[in-house]
Every structure is written in structure tokens, then in C-alpha cells.
Design brief:
The chain is an alpha+beta fold. The protein folds into two domains: 284 residues, Zn peptidases (Aminopeptidase, 3-Layer(aba) Sandwich); 153 residues, Alpha-Beta Plaits. It has 15 helices and 19 strands. The strands form five sheets. A six-stranded mixed sheet has the order 1-2-6-3-7-18. Strands 8, 9, 16 and 17 form a four-stranded mixed sheet that branches. A hairpin with a 5-residue loop joins strand 1 and strand 2. Helix 3 packs across helix 15 and helix 12 packs across helix 15. The chain is globular and about 80 Å long.
């Protein structure tokens, strides 16, 4: 949709104010059923969209766990429908690590500070503002436009998108989805998410023999065994698996022929990773390897009692093509002789998902992103974490992670702010992203 500079200024300011309000709602999802409180933001967004003459539905999947859906009907029932999806929950914070109030939503030197500023309340707010603007303008497009503000994404979407797509597909049915995250300038390219890694979360149960803590000699201490299991998992290298998506990413980084060839060689990739800034190295490694991160351990009952039971939660992220059996095979290799000491429980098991790029939505994104960045090439990319895109892909929809960052935000800065201290987004990125949604809607059905 073509807008004047004055209109874009107004819409950017509306996005800014809505982002601040969403941050201040403090919808922190710690993974428990009782957390999240996304109803605060669902009600806020409902108030923002009232008076448009549309049906607005709020679905509660648990106490205070509300998601919002509304649809602006197009002129052609056979035309593809587009869903603008943003989640309203955020991850917990450690306030002591922040320079500002993580839920203050303060505007400091052209940046909005707060948990969720990049993940992903900036997109959730800009999508709502653009959706409202389109409906108020009265302009209709061939296909439907759906706005979906969803709960529980940060805990895997079980009480959000997964449940709602299973139960309310008639209200959410669409062909295309735009959500987090993409539009990251890297050298001469813009990375846009077309695929995401799979999840193979495992809980490893380790058993020992209880005894008195004053006599540890020759005891079967489950915690000591668990410590060695954690060490082996942390040291395990599953090897790089490099595909065409990886090759496109490497070419986009524009590191020169020597480093690029090393990144395309499983035997030498670690030489280049060691030279990269930490945030970029972590992301690059995760895009080329199945990863294993032991993140939670429970065990022991008392300081003077040798523990007989310990559990370890391992965050496993699989590359496209890997299965649940592959995850277990990796763990068996990593643990060696200790594998027989472990009982493995599957916490979550979902394969990697991807969307093709030979479609009108990709073409619209290419044209829209070329307007502010004519010198950059749009490149498909794999995201290492999970998003709600996978649930739509399982329904047959094409889903991309989009948005636009300003040149002020480097890829390294952006990645460090995800789930990190001092999360913030600059107003220029809000402006670029707001314009992006307007342009994509205009170009999609062109």
C-alpha cells in the first residue's frame, strides 16, 4: 500500500507506542502452564482493533493464556490468504544484567528497550498497526488478511498455535504466513527465514545407590555419573551437515573464496568458526550442526544423602532430514559406555520444517525489501530456534520469517539481543518493518 511520508511517520509512531505498551504488559512465559498472562496483551490488541467492523475472536487455552484472531476478507474467495502472526509472550529476564528496566519500554536515543523488543513484539505491534491501517483505508485485496496474536510461542506453542491450529483451523486457515525473524543485512545479502531446525528434547534419567554423604568412597553417586554425562554431551561433535541452504548462506556472508571454501568443507569449518565473533560463530555453528545443550539438572534430596536419582534435560536441535532415531544414535555415540546407565524420556520431538521460495510471497518480499535495500540480495536462511511457523507448514501453508533491520543493527548485535540482556530495537527498524508489511500486501496480489 502506498503511503505518504507523513502517514509512515504516524504509523511508525503508532508501532512504537504499541510496542512500548506490549513490553510493559510483562507477559513472561517461563514454560509453566500458569505463566504468560498473554490475556493482558490480547485485550490490549483487541482494544486497538475495535471499531473496524470485523469479528475479533479471543481464544483462551489456559488461565490468562489468550490469543487473538481477526480476518479482513478479500474480494476473491479463491485467492490465497495471508496471515500476519506475532506472539505476545516473552522469555524471563535477569534484571541485574540490564542497564534499564526490562519492562519499562523506554525510548532511549532512538531505541526502544525491553524484553520482547526484538523477540518479537516489534513485529507483533507493527503487524497490528498495518492491519488496522489497511482495514480503515477501506482498500480490499483479492485474498483475506488475517492478524494472529498468539500466546505460548516461547514454550513451544503447545498452549498457543499448535492447539489453535488443531481446533480453530477454519478461523486461521491461510496459504501464506509472515512471522519472525528475517531481514537481517549480512554483507551484500538480506537473510530471510525459510526453514527452522527440528526439536528433539530429551530428559536423561540417571540412577545410582543412596548412602550417607559422610562415606562417599566407592559409592554409586548418580550426581557424579550425571556430571560425566553432561561433560560428554558438551564435548560431543556430531559433525557438520552441509546442504544447499547452507551453501547459499555461506555465499551470502561474502567472506572471500578461501574462507568460504573452508566453511563448505566439514573437515575445516571449525577453523573459520574460531575466527568469528562469538555471537556469529554460535549461530553459524548451529546452522551447520545438530546441537546438544544440557540445560537443566535435577537431583539430590539433602546435603548428607548420596543421590540415587538425577535427571538432565538436553535441548537437541536437529537439521533438516534428521529423525528421532538419529537423535538417539547421537546420544549413544556421545555417552559411550554410560549410555546403558541412562533411561531416555522424549520431551518434544518434531522434525525440521521448510518452505519453498518459488511462490508469490517470496517474490513480493524480494521486491518489497529491494526498495530500501536495492543493493542487497534476498537469501533463504535456516533459523536455529523454533517458531510457530512449523505448525502452519504442517498444515500446508508457506511460512517465512521476515521484518527489516536498519543498517544500525548488525547481525551480531541482533543475535546477541535475542533472549539476552539489554534487548532493544531502533525506531528506524520499526519504520522499515512497518513499510515492509504495507509493501508486501500491495505486491502479493499484484
Amino acid at each position: 500500500m502506498v503511503v505518504t511520508e507523513a502517514d509512515l511517520d504516524r504509523l511508525t509512531n503508532e508501532t512504537l507506542e504499541l510496542l512500548q505498551a506490549l513490553i510493559r504488559n510483562e507477559c513472561v512465559n517461563d514454560g509453566s502452564y500458569e505463566s504468560g498472562h498473554e490475556d493482558r496483551s490480547a485485550r490490549l490488541l483487541e482494544n486497538e482493533l475495535e471499531g473496524l467492523g470485523l469479528d475479533i475472536e479471543r481464544y483462551e487455552t489456559g488461565p490468562g493464556r489468550s490469543s487473538l484472531v481477526t480476518r479482513y476478507h478479500g474480494t476473491d474467495p479463491t485467492a490465497p490468504a495471508l496471515c500476519l502472526m506475532g506472539h505476545t509472550d516473552v522469555v524471563p529476564v535477569t534484571p541485574e544484567g540490564w542497564d534499564r528496566d526490562p519492562f519499562g519500554g523506554e525510548l532511549i536515543h532512538g531505541e526502544v528497550w525491553g524484553r520482547g523488543a526484538v523477540d518479537m513484539l516489534n513485529l507483533t505491534s507493527s503487524m497490528a498497526v498495518v492491519f488496522r491501517h489497511i482495514v480503515k483505508s477501506g482498500k480490499r485485496y483479492p485474498g483475506d488478511i488475517i492478524y494472529f496474536a498468539v500466546a505460548d510461542e516461547e514454550a513451544g506453542g503447545i498452549h498457543g498455535a499448535k492447539q489453535l491450529l488443531d481446533e480453530q483451523w477454519d478461523h486461521l486457515k491461510c496459504d501464506y504466513v509472515l512471522t519472525e525473524f528475517g531481514g537481517i543485512p549480512v554483507s551484500t545479502s538480506l537473510l530471510l527465514t525459510t526453514a527452522e531446525k527440528g526439536v528433539g528434547w530429551r530428559r536423561l534419567h540417571v540412577e545410582g545407590t543412596p548412602g550417607h554423604g559422610s562415606m562417599p568412597y566407592m559409592t554409586d553417586n548418580a550426581l557424579v555419573t550425571a556430571a560425566e554425562i553432561v561433560r560428554r554431551i558438551a564435548a560431543y561433535d556430531p559433525g557438520a551437515r552441509l546442504d544447499s541452504l547452507w551453501e547459499q548462506r555461506v555465499r551470502a556472508m561474502n567472506l572471500g573464496p578461501e574462507l568460504s571454501e573452508k566453511l563448505l568443507d566439514p573437515g575445516s569449518i571449525h577453523e573459520v568458526l574460531a575466527l568469528m565473533p562469538p555471537a556469529l560463530a554460535r549461530n553459524t555453528h548451529s546452522c551447520s550442526h545438530t546441537t546438544f545443550s544440557p540445560n537443566v539438572i535435577h537431583g539430590g534430596v539433602k546435603t548428607n544423602v548420596i543421590p540415587d536419582r538425577v535427571s538432565i534435560d538436553v535441548d537437541v536441535r536437529t537439521l533438516p532430514g534428521e529423525t528421532s532415531a538419529d537423535v538417539d544414535a547421537h546420544l549413544k555415540t556421545a555417552l559411550g559406555d554410560l549410555y546403558e546407565r541412562v533411561r531416555t524420556e522424549i520431551l518434544q520431538d518434531e522434525p525440521a520444517t521448510a518452505s519453498p521460495t518459488d511462490n508469490p510471497l517470496w517474490s513480493a518480499l524480494e521486491k518489497a525489501m529491494a526498495r530500501p535495500y536495492p543493493e542487497l540480495t534476498l537469501v533463504p536462511s535456516l533459523v536455529t530456534g523454533g517458531t510457530d511457523s512449523r505448525f502452519f507448514r504442517q498444515k500446508g501453508a508457506i511460512a517465512f520469517g521476515a521484518g527489516l533491520l536498519s543498517p544500525q543493527v548488525s547481525a551480531e548485535d541482533f543475535l546477541m539481543r535475542f533472549h539476552g540482556h539489554n534487548e532493544r530495537i531502533d525506531v528506524e527498524s520499526l519504520r522499515l518493518t512497518t513499510q515492509l508489511w504495507l509493501d508486501v500486501v500491495e505486491l502479493l496480489w499484484d
